[in-house]
Amino acid sequence: MGKTSGSNQITAAAADPFAGDAKPLAAVATCKKGKTRLTVHLVRFDNGVAVPNETVSASKGWWPTKKTTAGTGAADFGEVDAGSYSFDVTLSTANKSKFKPYTAHTASVPEQVDFHATLKIAPVYRVRIVLFDKAAKATSGAQWTMTSPVAASGTTGANGLIEVEIPWRDTAGKLTVKLPDTGAKEPAPAAAPAPNPNNPAYPLAIDGNHFLPKEEKAKALTDVTLTYDLEHITDADNEDGWKSRLTNLGFPCTNDAPRVTRSVKAFQRLHKNDFAGSGNLSDVSADVKKLHDTT
Amino acid sequence: MLVVRQGQLAVFEEPLLQQFETAMLARTQRYFPMDAALLGEAHLRAAIRQAARKAFALGFTEQSQVCRYFDLSLCLGTAFPSDPLLPWGEACLTGTRGESGAFEQLFDAAVSYIEAVSGEDGEYATRAIVRARALSFAEAANPNADHGPSTLRILRKLWPQKFRRSSGDDQARFLALAGQLSRRDDLDAPGPRQLYTILMFLLGSHFARDATIPWAREALIATTGASPEKRARTLYDAGMGFIDAFRALLPSKAPN
User: Which CATH architecture has domain A125-181+218-232?
Assistant: First the structure.
């Protein structure tokens, strides 16, 4: 445990014939019936969670395929012939956008073993940010540049969406957005009627122009730099999942029930034009999921 | 990535693992005599078994792969592919470069890293261990440690070659993991946490559960339920004892 070996020691040891023997050490699990059995498990690379209802194949001259089961993500190929098998995964349409294509590879299935192989598929991680204005209208034509964790740039379309694929471990990043200058300005407030110097009114009439910001402050916000650190959200279709999504959409939800109610009502006002919203999370769950996951 | 599950491994242990262990014992004594001497046969067998399990879990099931994975474990720690200071380990295993050659990529990346960080003959790593011996308990487990810049300064001073190979992001992930693991191991106080962080840096991020570092696990088990400071002191004494044993095995002209 010296931890003080150098590269010379490592390479010398690797040159030893023992370290060059490619015989499989896994070929020892004896099947009780004296047969060779094969089970393939499909899991996510990042968290090891089983991926059900996907098609896996284990080919040895021919191409039997099986669906992975719900719960365990296992596909039982039953009794098979020993030999070299090529394992592959054909993702369903629903999961094609969620996972990277699996690279087929081979493993040797020995005779008279109960062979379990686990195929790991890597999820695609994306940052998805939707720009919209105060009226909840998507902002198109905004130029954006991501500098970390990957370099990317683009211009938002009609849906206001910025979407970038990122490495799964790099959750922190930086994004600069240049909002389009629409030239639209809010109408100036009405000027107060000119005071009669001989008979000044009391109280004085309010002149909205007195409250305009200084010139430099009045400029439209055009350049925004976001520094973010992503967290995983619950992907499930349940209360935790809805709250996570609602928070992501800008309506914070904590374990504080009144806070959730206020956020749901705000969502209902802004996105459903419902000014007497119920505040019940279940009433907006479908809309929240649709807006968050597909917009 | 393809992983062969526990089903095979359980059977692999009997009797093939014993044969493999026996062959590996002789091989380790030949190529890594200092590690073999410091560990002794029982700990060495446990370390071989742990490395084999880890290699299997990563999908490396050929003798050539398991054998070389153990060699790398002696140098980098058994769980080195998940060490935040060695991000190339995980990068080789994500499958993005084609999985059939994953182990060769991992091995080549590891050898390049070891050459740059430990030196061709381990001279940089040896100096780091010797420098660590000069750290007093008050310095290593400084109760005013910030788990940030001051801790990183100590790490850079101890082993500059290794420190330089890590990016700011790597260091941030490393410190975050150090905080998490020191809490897990009941060393959740500024001084004990810094000592834990230093040991992670020198011995690998998962040293506390690493069979190639049995003294750390024994020190933590022996002080179960004790205060973080007491556990840190015991860990420090065990570490210094190890370094003394290590230095005793060094050739007389050891680097300082």
Answer: Sandwich (2.60)
